[in-house]
Amino acid sequence: MQRIGVFVCHCGTNIAATVDVKRVVEAAAKEPGVVHAEDYQYMCSEAGQLKIREAIEQKHLTGIVVCSCSPRMHENTFRQAAKRAGINPYMVEIANIREHCSWIHKDIEEATEKAVILARAAIAKVMLNAPLTPGTSQVVKRALVIGGGIAGIQTALDIADAGYEVDIVEKTPSIGGRMSQLDKTFPTLDCSACILTPKMVEAAAHEKITIYTYSEVEKVSGFVGDFHVDIRKKARSVDMSKCTGCGVCQEKCPSRKTPNEFNRGLNTRSAIYTPFAQAIPNVPVIDREHCTKFKTGKCGVCAKVCQAGAIDYDQQDEIITVDYGAIVVATGFDTIKLDKYDEYAYNQSPDVITSLELERIMNAAGPTKGHLERMSDHKPPKSMVFIQCVGSRCADKRGKSYCSKICCMYTAKHAMLIRDKYPDVDVTVFYIDVRTPGKNFDEFYRRAVEEYGVHYIKGQVGKVAPQGDKLLVQAADLLDNKQIRMETDMVVLATAIEPNPDVRKIATMLTASIDTNNFLTESHAKLRPVESPTAGIFLSGVCQGPKDIPETVAQAGAAAVKVVGLLAKDHLVTNPCTAKADPIFCNGCSTCEKVCPYGAISYEDQLVNDHGIRETRRVAVVNSALCQGCGACTVACPSGAMDLQGFSNRQILAEVDAICR
Amino acid sequence: MQKVDMAKADRLREMSGVNTRKCMKCGKCSASCPAYEEMDIRPHQFVSYVESGDIEPLLESKSIWKCLSCFACVERCPRDVKPAKLIEAVRQMVVRQRGGNYLSPNEVPELLNEELPQQLLASAFRKYSK
Amino acid sequence: MQVENTEFRPKIVAFCCNWCSYAGADLAGSSRLAYPADVKIIRVPCSCRVNPMFILRAFQRGADGVILCGCHPGDCHYTTGNYYARRRMTLLFSMLDYLGVENGRTRVEWVSAAEGVKFSTTMNEFVAKIHELGENVRLEDLRCKG
C-alpha cells in the first residue's frame, strides 16, 4: 500500500495570494493513501526540501505530491530531494497550482477549488506510480560536422583541440565555404583568404580531423551519443591517394564552358576542376555532367596528361557508415534567386550584379583579376549604385521576412573599398535603414560617408532599366521628398541570404526542427542558442540565423563546447519513461512497430505463460535506449499490451477520474 | 495643427483593405511611380497620412486624379501595403462625397476592352465620372 | 463571490503535450492571461499518447468538454506524434458526434510553447462554447455519479 505525502507551496504570495493553501492541505489529507500533508513558504528552498526529506524518512512515505509551480520548473529539484531521502525519484508528482491556477485566477474560492482538484489528480496518479530506473547509453567519442565553411571548420578545430575525433562532411570539392569567396572582411578589411586559409590548412593537417569533401550525408539513425550516419562519397573520378595537385589536367582539359560556381557564374571553368587555387584538398574532381569523356566517351585528355595516373573514370560513389556521439549542423547559406525581381533588371543586364558577385570581381583571384570592370564591356565604371534590402524585410511572397543582417556592413565595405581604390568612381547607396550594431560597425559606416564620400540616400530604388550602355535608376529620396532618376554604369544588389536549400533534407534526417524560413530552430532562443531541441544535434553558423563572420566563429566555438561537454561523458542517462509491452496481451501484430518514429520496437519469440498455457509467441520488445517515450505505440496497440511507463493508461485514467469527480 | 480624423482613416483602410501599419517607409512606391512629378502628395505619403489620420489634405490633393492606377507600387511594395489601393479609396471617398456621379451600368459594356486590366477600368470610371 | 448552485460549472479536461502546449499553458500563466478555472490540464508526453479511451472515460465521468493540445504540425518533438493524434481524433470526434456528443465539445488545437496568448484565447473560446452547449448528458455513466 502506498503512503503518500502532500506538500503545498506558498511560493511567497505567488500561490498563497489566490489559493487558500491551508484548505488545499486539509482536502489533500483526506484523500485515500495520504498519510502526511503540510504547507511551506518555499518548498524548493533548502528548508522546504528538508521538510520533504524529514517527512519521507519519519512517515515512511512511498511517494510524494508537491503542489507548486510547473513541473518544467522544479520537477527535477523535487525528484532529487526524494532520491536523497531514499525513495525512487520517479515516485514524485507535481500539481501545477501556480502557472495553471493561482496566476490566472483572481477569485480565491475558484482558485482554491481548482488547486484541490489538481492536487487530487496528482495524488491519484502517484498512487499508481512505480519506481523507475533510468538506463544508460554509451557515448561514441566522435563528432560529425555537416558543412565545411568557416562555421564547420572552427567547430571541428575546437572539438579536435579538446582531444576528440571529428569528421567534416562537405558537399563541394573543397572546404572553405562562402568565406573563401569573399575578398575583404569588415570592419577591419582583412583579406578573407589570408585569415581563412590557415584555418583550412590547420583543419586538414589536424590528426583528429577527417575531412570528407565532395560528400553528402545520406541517412541518419540512432540517437544522442550513438548516431549512425551514412555518408555518400561522390565519385571524384580522381584517385586522391595518387593525385599530386599539379593542375596540368585542368590546364589541358578541352571542355571549358561550364559556368564557374565559385565565381558565381561570371566566368567558366574546365570540366575537371578544383573550385579555387587554395582548395583543400588540392585534388580536382571531374564534373561528369559537363565532361566530354562522360558525355560522348571520346576525350580522355586528363588521363593522358596525368603523370601520377590518378584519373579514374570508373570510380563509383562510395557509401560509408560511421558512428557519432554528436552532430553539428553548419550548412551555411546562399543568396536568394532574383528571378522574381524584374524591376532590378538582374536577368537583363550583366552590369547588374549581386554583392557576392562583386566580391569575386574585386578579388585578385576572381574573373577580372581584381580589376573593377563592367561585365558587359569590361570597361571601368564611372558611377555605381548599391541597392540595399533586395529581398530582405519583405512581407510579400517574393522575398524573405527577416533582415539579412550582413548587407549594411558589406555594402559600406564595398563602397569604401571602391572609393579608396578608384576615387573617380561616384558611389551612391540607396538604403531603407542602415543597421550597424556591432563593435566598430557604425564608425566604419560613418567613415565610408565622411572620409570616402559615399552618397547615402534614404529611399528604395523602384526600377533599374538598361538604356544604351548605361543603366537608368529611378529611386525615391524620402528626406528631400523627391524622385531621383540617374544614369549609372553598374548596379550592385545587396541580395538577401537564405539557408542552404539542402538544410531541410538534413533537418528531416536529423529530426531537428526548422522554421518557416528554413533556419534551424534553437532549443531556447536565449539560454540554449546553439543546441537543437533534438538531443545531440548542435547548430553553428548561418543555418541557425543570419550572422557575420565574428558571430559565426563565436557560435562555432559555443557549439564545440557543447559537443565536448557531451563527448566527455562516458555514458548518458536515458529517460526511463519508455514504452513496455505486456507479453501476455501482445499478439505480435506489428502495428506498434509501424508507428514508432525511432525504430525502437522489434519482435522476438518468447516463452509466455498465459494462465498456465506455456507457449512460444512472437511478442513486441521495446529497446529502452531508443524509445523516447512519445506513446504513439500505446494507442496504436489493438490489444492494449503496450503501455508507457510514467504515463500509463491507469495513471492517466486516474487523473481523468479525479478531475471529473 | 493638423486635423485628425481617425474615423475617415479607418474608413479608408476598410475600403482599400490596406493595413497602413505594415509600411516600413522604404519609399519604393514613390520610387516606382511614373506620375510622381505631377503629384503634390506622394504615394508613400498617402500611407503615412492615413496612418496619422490626416485625411483632409488627401481629399483635396490633386494626386488622386494624377495616379495612373498602373499598380507599379502595389506590385513592388516589399511590405505588401498596396498604396494604389489606398489612393483609389481616397478617390472613391471624394466621389461619394460629391453625390456619387457614377457611370450607369448600360454604359459599361461598350467601354470594355479585354486588353485592359479590370482594376484600371474601375479606377478610370471613378476618375472621369467626377 | 459566492458561486450559486444553479450556475452551470462545466468540467473540462485539457490534454496538453509536454513539449509545446503544456509550456504554452505555463506561458499563459506567467503572462497572467486568464481563462476559466473549469479547465483542468493533464500533462502527457505527446498528443499521440492520448488514447481515445481517455476521452471516452472523461465523458463517462461527466466531463462537458475535452480539448487536446499538441505541437503545430511539423513541430512535434517526436516528429510525427501530432499527425497520429490528428487522425485519431478526427475519427473519434465524428463518432462522438454520431453518439450525440456535439462536435463543439471536442477540439484539437495546436499551441506552441511560445503561444501563451493562443492558449488562453483558445481556452476562453472553448469554455464559452461549452456554456453555449450546456451540460453534457450523453455517455455519462450515472453509476459513477456521487
Automatic annotation (TrEMBL), chain A:
Q: Where is the 4Fe-4S ferredoxin-type domain?
A: 234-265, 282-316, 577-606, 618-647
MF (Gene Ontology): 4 iron, 4 sulfur cluster binding; metal ion binding; oxidoreductase activity
**Keyword set includes Oxidoreductase:** yes
Cofactor names from the entry are: FAD
Q: Which UniProt keywords apply?
A: 4Fe-4S, FAD, Flavoprotein, Iron, Iron-sulfur, Metal-binding, Oxidoreductase
InterPro entries recorded: 4Fe4S_Fe-S-bd, 4Fe4S_Fe_S_CS, FAD/NAD-bd_sf, HdrA-like
Q: Which family would the database say this protein is a member of?
A: Belongs to the HdrA family.
State what protein this is by name. CoB--CoM heterodisulfide reductase iron-sulfur subunit A family protein
Supply the source organism for this entry: Anaerosacchariphilus hominis
Automatic annotation (TrEMBL), chain B:
Cleaved signal peptide residues: none
The alphabetical list of record keywords is:
Iron, Iron-sulfur, Metal-binding
Give the GO molecular function terms: iron-sulfur cluster binding; metal ion binding
Domain named 4Fe-4S ferredoxin-type: which ranges?
A: 13-44
Keyword Ribonucleoprotein listed? The answer is: no
Q: Which Pfam families has this protein been placed in? A: Fer4_8 (PF13183)
Q: Which GO terms describe its cellular component?
A: plasma membrane
- The answer, when asked if Ribonucleoprotein is one of the entry's keywords, is no
Q: Which InterPro entries match?
A: 4Fe4S_Fe-S-bd, 4Fe4S_Fe_S_CS, HdrC_iron-sulfur_subunit, Helical_ferredxn
Gene3D superfamilies documented for this protein: Alpha-helical ferredoxin (1.10.1060.10)
Protein name listed in UniProt: 4Fe-4S dicluster domain-containing protein
* Native organism: Anaerosacchariphilus hominis
Recall the taxonomic lineage recorded for the source organism. Answer: Bacteria, Bacillati, Bacillota, Clostridia, Lachnospirales
TrEMBL record, chain C:
Keyword check for Oxidoreductase, yes or no. Answer: yes
Q: Determine the domain of life of the protein's source.
A: Bacteria
Q: Which UniProt keywords apply?
A: Iron, Iron-sulfur, Metal-binding, Oxidoreductase
A Gene Ontology molecular-function term?
Answer: oxidoreductase activity
- Stretches assigned to the F420-non-reducing hydrogenase iron-sulfur subunit D domain: 12-134
Q: By its UniProt entry, which InterPro entries does this protein fall under?
A: MvhD/FlpD
What is the protein name given in its UniProt record?
A: Hydrogenase iron-sulfur subunit
